[in-house]
Design brief:
8-stranded parallel sheet; Sulfite Reductase Hemoprotein, domain 1; 5-stranded mixed sheet; alpha/beta; TIM Barrel
Length: about 350
């Protein structure tokens, strides 16, 4: 699918080997839910995130032990590592010295003098700083000025800290202005995008469990991406962060911002369905998790109408009781036994992936 979306060109920054902003694709980010002090558990979760398609990962740094663990974690993962800092500027400096690719700080809980010390360290180590403003932790004077955590209050907070960083000679900067209210979040990013060309990290914070998080993120992040705003995204889900990856990539594909990964089309089922389409869809989704090649994969529960209803799919299965049809671009290739649906489909997908890489 070609998109007519014209993305706003932002200045590029580099998190390790990943470019953010400029002409780079919108990157998918997540955050671990493990105790960062537990290196083994944190690395294990990050590797699962990597397998699911995560391109940038953030970890909480609540104390010195967590900050000291960052170098060990960094050595064992393949994607850029971001340290999330609240209140304690010394932890930010320690994280920078331990080799993280970026830090995220909240201007609502670090004063200017301490912020300048963080900037000095970040410049020395060429570490990217994300000014991450949240509606729940705004400066008291801005809450008083605007009567609450409005979109304009979020933007003023971000620009206030941005000015401090720029005056100190720092320009490796990302910005975010997150809120749990979708309308506030959208309005804040629109306003901020109009006032700066630094790359923006999009997200609806505290979005809830998977269904609420998917809906809120699809609306908030989706609206902004459609308007050409945003350079990285994070779908915040209460629970396993690996579940964020499917939603994030689905949003990017649906908007047409980035055609990456499998786009799985499955029928809602009806009285004609004679196979367990729900189980089939779940298994295929799990087996294809993390695949970056863009393919439309159709899983239909009717051998009569299935191929015709999914003619735009690259490949798919139209299943009936005991057997089904494996098809490409709406044309049947061969008959397949029901117990071989997944095996036959994945083999065909593997061959298509190889073909596309060779082109």
């Amino acid at each position: 699918m070609e998109t007519r979306i014209k993305r706003k060109r932002t200045r590029p920054v580099f998190l390790g080997g990943v470019q953010v902003g400029g002409n780079a694709p919108v990157a998918v980010q997540s955050m671990t839910s493990t105790d960062t002090r537990n290196v083994r558990a944190t690395v294990r979760q990050i590797r699962k995130l990597e397998e699911a398609g995560c391109e940038i990962v953030r970890v909480a740094v609540p104390d010195k032990v967590a900050a000291a663990a960052l170098s060990d974690i960094k050595r064992q993962i393949a994607i850029p590592l971001i340290a999330d800092i609240h209140f304690n500027y010394r932890l930010a400096i320690e994280a920078i010295r331990n080799g993280v690719d970026g830090i995220r700080i909240n201007p609502g809980n670090i004063d200017k003098e301490k912020l300048l010390k963080i900037v000095e360290a970040a410049k020395s180590w060429e570490t990217v700083i994300r000014i991450g403003v949240n509606a729940g932790s705004l400066e008291k004077d801005l809450l008083k000025k605007y009567g609450g955590p409005s979109s304009s209050a979020l933007v003023e907070s971000a620009l206030r800290s941005l000015a401090v960083l720029e005056d100190a000679g720092c320009d490796s900067i990302k910005l975010s202005v997150k809120a749990s209210d979708v309308s506030t979040m959208v309005e804040a990013y629109r306003e901020l995008s109009g006032k700066t060309d630094y790359p923006l990290h999009l997200g609806v914070t505290e979005a809830g469990s998977i269904v609420n998080a998917a809906v809120k993120s699809a609306i908030g992040i989706g609206i902004l991406l459609y308007e050409g705003i945003g350079d990285t995204i994070r779908v915040s889900v209460t629970g396993d962060p690996v579940s964020e990856m499917g939603v994030a990539y689905a949003i990017l594909r649906a908007i047409g911002t980035r055609n990456v990964g499998p786009d799985i089309i499955s029928c809602p089922t009806c009285g004609r369905c004679e196979i367990d389409i729900f189980r089939l869809t779940q298994e295929v989704e799990q087996r294809l998790a993390g695949m970056k090649t863009h393919l439309k994969v159709a899983l239909m529960g009717c051998v009569v109408n299935g191929p015709g209803e999914a003619t735009e799919a690259d490949v798919g299965i139209a299943g009936g009781k005991g057997y089904g049809l494996l098809f490409k671009k709406g044309k049947a290739i061969r008959k397949v036994k029901e117990k071989e649906f997944v095996t036959a489909l994945l083999a065909e997908i593997d061959s298509m992936v190889v073909e596309r890489k060779e082109i």
